[in-house]
Write a structure and sequence with these properties.
Layout: H1 11-17, H2 20-31, E1 37-44, E2 48-55, E3 58-65, H3 72-80, H4 92-112, E4 120-124, E5 127-131, E6 134-135, E7 138-139, H5 151-167, E8 171-172, E9 181-183, E10 187-189, E11 196-197, H6 203-218, H7 227-235
Antiparallel strand pairs: 1-2, 2-3, 3-5, 4-5, 6-7, 8-11, 9-10
Helix pairs in contact: 3-4, 5-6, 5-7, 6-7
The chain binds adenosine-5'-triphosphate (ATP) and magnesium ion.
């Protein structure tokens, strides 16, 4: 079976993203009918590219971690502290596959806890396929570019997500900001490759950083709770006032 890779004929994208390993994984996913077409590129990030795709005419998002250019050193610190992944070999390719699997399982945990995240559908090697968060082929805007009618309400929903994520999914997002939240009918948390379990040695500092990022973004848009108050409400731990 053939597959069209639309908009990906720029040489740079083709070489960086669609190497042999990735193409094999894609063909396997096509063969297993997880994927019927790859559409336009939605985003080129530091470690991954995201493409619009279709499965039986239904939109999906295809996130492909680049094996060549991924930032290997930072990735490894998020993996080694996580007991679920401590056995992962330190070879680059293995690490990127583990990272993909980690994002998949983090999305499953978050979703099981009732948080609005893309529905993870399948992963293979460095490819993660999830439900498409947007309208038609157009993803919902990142929170930083979204028009918010009621920022106070959106703020409290996001703080609630942080709480549920920590207490029910037992995860810390660890890269939460206006870049990794899509806003449409409601806020959706995305980009959970780096999310860690509560027992990760840096889980608490990551949690505090997430809270600070959200407060920084909202403080000129609505009333925000103190960082330390949210941290206390979520974890039950007291922090000294700065
Ligand atoms: N499920 C999805 N539905 C629609 N759009 C998505 C989805 N997942 C990602 N996107 C789009 O792709 C962009 C980048 O996704 P994401 O934040 O997961 O990766 P990234 O930031 O590029 O990762 P990195 O910086 O680690 O390379 C998002 O801002 C969004 O526009
Ligand atoms: Mg991101």
């Amino acid at each position: 079976m053939g597959i069209r890779i639309r908009d990906a004929d720029q040489l740079k994208v083709r070489e960086d993203v669609f190497d042999e390993v990735t193409l094999l994984a894609l063909y396997k996913l096509v063969h297993k009918k997880w994927l019927s077409a790859i559409g336009g590129s939605i985003s080129t990030g530091k470690e991954a590219n995201v493409f619009y795709g279709e499965r039986d005419a239904v939109g999906i998002a295809i996130k492909i971690y680049r094996i060549r250019t991924a930032n290997f050193t930072t990735m490894s610190s998020y993996i080694t502290g996580d007991r679920r992944f401590s056995h992962v070999k330190k070879a680059k390719k293995e690490l990127i596959f583990a990272w993909t699997r980690k994002e998949f399982s983090n999305l499953v945990r978050a979703r099981d806890a009732g948080i609005a995240v893309p529905e993870p559908l399948v992963w293979d090697r460095n490819i993660l396929i999830m439900s498409f968060i947007g309208e038609g082929e157009c993803p919902y805007p990142q929170l930083r570019n979204a028009e918010m009618e009621d920022p106070q309400d959106i703020y409290s929903r996001i703080v609630k997500c942080i709480d549920i994520l920590y207490n029910k999914a037992e995860l810390v997002h660890a890269d939460l900001s206006e870049f990794n939240i899509l806003y449409g009918d409601q806020p959706y948390l995305i980009d959970m490759g780096q999310s860690v379990t509560r027992d990760h040695p840096r889980a608490l500092p990551f949690l505090m950083r997430d809270i600070k990022n959200i407060n920084r973004f909202f403080k000129n848009r609505c009333e925000v709770q103190k960082d330390t108050e949210i941290f206390h409400a979520v974890t039950g731990l007291k922090v000294a006032e700065p």
